[in-house]
Amino acid sequence: MNTTSSLMALWKEARKRFSDQLSQVNTDDLRKKISPNSNSIGFLIRHIGDVELLFAKNVFKDSRVSVIAKTVIDQKDSGEWNNLDELLNYTSNSFLALESIISNQTEENWSEFVETKEFGTKSKAEAFGRIISHTTYHAGQIALIRKYGN
């Protein structure tokens, strides 16, 4: 198994934590929060999609990707992320965009360095670890909010 195949398998397995949550979320869940100042499930779903698209565009330099990462820009929950079908479609598209660009990486691409304001200079392989941990981190938050949130 080459690096691209290995990292693709790792990412898909990690992202399954998020996909499993999505399959259980209903429209009423989207507004749930742990506390009044925390992010809602709807915000977190949109945020994961935003960040996946940002990774495809900025880390992997996919010029086909266009994204206005409103959750990253706003940095707080505006309460607008309450259309489940739109959120599911958005994160499906973000998954496909990132999957497409990952599958096109060569062995050499993974050792190339990228620089972002969020995490500095890293190899693409190191940077890729960020998207894996980011998605699973927020999937865990979604699970807790579904269970304990109002």
Please characterize this protein's 3D structure:
By secondary structure, this protein is mostly helical. It has a single domain (34-148), classed as dinb family like domain (Four Helix Bundle (Hemerythrin (Met), subunit A)). Helix content is 59%, strand content 5%. It has a two-stranded antiparallel ribbon with strand order 1-2. Helix 2 packs parallel to helix 4 (84-103). 29% of the residues are buried. The mean pLDDT is 95.
C-alpha-based Rg, rounded: 15 Å
Overall tally of domains: 1
The CATH homologous superfamily: dinb family like domain
Q: What is the helical fraction, as a range of percent?
A: 55-70%
Task: Kindly provide the name of the CATH class.
Answer: Mainly Alpha
**Contiguous helical run count:** 5
Strand order of the largest sheet: 1-2
CATH topology heading: Four Helix Bundle (Hemerythrin (Met), subunit A)
Termini separation comes to: 45 Å
Number of strands: 2
| Unreliable sequence segments | none
Largest sheet: 2 strands, antiparallel
Percent strand equals 5-15%
The helix/strand series, from N terminus to C terminus, equals: HHHHEEH
Taking all residues together, what is the mean pLDDT?
95
